[in-house]
Design brief:
There is one protein chain. It is built from eleven helices and 22 strands. The chain has 372 residues and is α+β, with helices and mostly antiparallel strands. It has three domains: 2-88, Rossmann fold, CATH 3.40.50.20; 116-170, ATP-grasp fold, A domain (Dna Ligase, domain 1, 2-Layer Sandwich), CATH 3.30.1490; 174-371, D-amino Acid Aminotransferase, Chain A, domain 1 (2-Layer Sandwich). The radius of gyration is 20 Å and the shape is globular. The N and C termini lie far apart (41 Å). The relative contact order is 0.12.
């Protein structure tokens, strides 16, 4: 089969690393010929994944397509699908998820628990909903990795909101944030990965580190898995989905948002689970049986981020020390240039002892620095 990936970042890179285990001819469409995935595919095509003609011409010679980011030209994918190209996930699912207004309306329509929200057209419209504060303002399209999200605690902060279509979402008293990856094949069969608990950097609003399986009561785990599975089934699309959820102080579970692709919260599955999220997506696209999503051992992930104050050619300070640590697996994304907060790689840690996992995560964060 000939299968293409729209986007050539680190997710595409890891997807291609898993593709080496299968008989598949791989294609990547990306604007930057030096992107992390460029040298790992069989065929690299330079082009804009948001451009109709670029996506259509790229995809029409392929058997199947997948994405590594939501900001793709959905109209081109719809035309390709109508001509027999398999799209994972379906363009209808991407269209629903890539726009936060449509995504939230989808949750409401299908009775999937998600925080209450109001749609706002612009800043003026936002100012008409002061009674709804404190709340979180999320731009409808274009947000990623914490960008496009603004907490509005009171009236004085309204000017920090977005002067564009967005949702104003009621703040939840969050106890834990978890993510669950759900895989579904063309037959509608599903497998669910154990929940991962995410701990965020409060300044950058990026994942600081995560623990998997999450340390949550079994009844919360079952309920969260049930919600995530129902959500994916309602999308009626094969593919791999990451569902981010909140657990509040009263142990209610709320869906935050969904990603229609392999996801940062599933990086640990490469070493920590029997079948990684990347291998699982290849199984789906190649029409093979779904893999075993169970955890082999508890794990933690630490993101490798560019240090504040550094822009330029990346240098990894303390890498030798980290590589000497036990049960530690380093993944560098091959990005030549660093800048503050940029994702440059991740590190997976395996240990049966959760306390040891957290200790190692903090040790790695204080040891490994990306400078220029």
């Amino acid at each position: 089969m000939k299968i293409g990936i729209l986007g050539g970042g680190q997710l595409g890179r890891m997807l291609l690393q898993a593709a080496a285990n299968y008989t598949v001819e791989t294609f990547v469409l990306e604007n930057d010929k030096n992107c992390p995935a460029a040298h790992l595919c069989h065929h690299f095509v330079k082009g804009d994944i948001r451009d109709f003609e670029a996506v259509y011409q790229f995809g029409k010679k392929l058997d199947a397509l997948t994405i590594e980011i939501e900001s793709v030209n959905v109209e081109a994918l719809e035309k390709l699908e109508s001509e027999g190209v398999k799209i994972y996930p379906k363009p209808s699912a991407i269209r629903t998820i890539k726009n936060k207004i449509k995504q939230k309306q989808f949750y409401k329509q299908h009775e999937i628990p998600s925080p209450h929200f109001i749609v706002t057209k612009n800043l003026q419209d936002l100012s008409n909903h002061r009674h709804f504060l404190p709340a979180v303002h999320k731009i409808a399209e274009g947000g990623y990795d914490g960008k496009g999200v603004q907490i509005i605690r009171n009236e004085r902060m309204i000017s920090k909101g977005f002067d564009a279509p967005a949702i104003l979402e009621k703040m939840v008293n969050i106890k834990k944030e978890i993510a669950i990856i759900v895989a579904m094949n063309d037959k509608g069969e599903t497998v669910v990965y154990p929940p991962a608990e995410m701990i965020f950097d409060p300044v950058l609003n990026l994942l600081d580190y995560q623990i998997s399986p999450a340390k949550i009561p079994q009844k919360i785990c079952w309920k969260a898995e049930s919600i995530a599975k129902k959500l994916v089934q309602e999308l009626k699309s094969p593919g791999l989905f990451a569902v981010e959820l909140f657990v509040d102080e009263n142990e209610n579970i709320w869906v935050n948002e969904t990603a229609p692709r392999v996801h940062n919260s599933g990086h640990h599955t490469i070493e920590a689970n029997y079948c990684s999220q990347y291998d699982m997506l290849w199984r789906i696209m190649l029409q093979y049986p779904l893999g075993n999503s169970n955890a082999i051992m508890p794990s933690a992930i630490v993101n490798i981020l560019g240090e504040d104050g550094y822009n330029g050619p990346a240098k990894y300070e303390g890498l030798d020390k980290v590589l000497q640590m036990e049960n530690v697996f380093v993944h560098l994304y091959g990005k030549k240039e660093t800048k503050p907060g940029r994702k440059m790689g991740h590190i997976t840690i395996l240990n049966k002892d959760y306390t040891a996992l957290v200790r190692s995560a903090h040790a790695i964060k204080s040891t490994l620095k990306v400078i220029a």
